[in-house]
Amino acid sequence: MNNGTHEELLRASVAPQQPMTTTSTILRFVAEASADSPGGRVAAGTVMKWIDEAAAVVAHQWAKSPCVAASFGKIRFAHPVVAGALVEVEARLAYTGTTSMNIFIEVRSGPQISEAYQEVTHCVAVFVSPDKHGTPRPVDTWTPETPGDMALAQPVRSWLAAHAPGVA
After folding, report:
1. Contacts with 159 (C-beta within 8 Å, 6 or more apart), sequence order
2. What CA–CA distance (Å, rounded) separates 21 from 6?
3. Residue 148 near residue 92, CB atoms below 8 Å
4. What is the pTM of this model?
5. How many whole angstroms separate alpha carbon 48 and alpha carbon 123?
6. Quick one: average pLDDT of 42-68?
7. DSSP string computed for 20-35
């Protein structure tokens, strides 16, 4: 193959660059087997690490500074992730408080690109951006604009109203 043809194939195989969003991210990869994976299943701790990583990306992008997890909501596994499966971890900003960012994360997996993914789990993570003294910094307010964003933000606001009055 000559150089011109190779370069053309390379350009054609690379997806066009998508603009970076500050409110969401999707991580996609093939799940690897590990020694602590009985029966070829990925350990729950590994899935939770993926959740943390995806949420941290969104928090860092929104706050424009390093962030740390303050809490994670209930994580219940509906399906296991098996080694060799394709995995998609989607994290979306759902709500911002004065100093906190609530991020909705969904993990999906499937055996092949052409087959539908199954939801593995979903949860909400709360992140903050601490200053050098460990005090959470204020973050910009996020206003949901699309119907999907509004639907995602509503349960977070409702929970805060019921469990943390004065925060929502």
Report:
1. none
2. 32
3. no
4. 0.81
5. 10
6. 95
7. PPSSEEEEEEEPPP-T
pLDDT digits (tens, 9 = 90+) for 64-110: 999 999 999 889 999 999 988 999 999 999 999 999 999 999 999 99
Answer with the residue of higher pLDDT: 115 or 21.
Answer: 115
Facing residues of 123 across strands?
105
Beta pairing, strands 68-72 & 86-96? unpaired
Please identify which residue in the block is written with the tokens 């990869």.
Answer: 29
Model confidence pLDDT, tens digit, residues 27-49:
999 998 776 667 788 989 999 99
- Provide the token pair at 127: 């992140």
141 vs 62: CA distance, rounded Å: 10
Which residue, among 23, 42, 34, has the nearest Cα to 95 in the 3D structure? Answer: 23
Alpha-carbon distance of 93 to 144, in angstroms, equals 9
Q: Which residues contact 84 (CB under 8 A, 6 or more apart)?
A: 30, 31, 33, 40, 111
**What does the alpha-carbon distance between residue 8 and residue 154 come to, in Å, rounded to a whole number?**
47
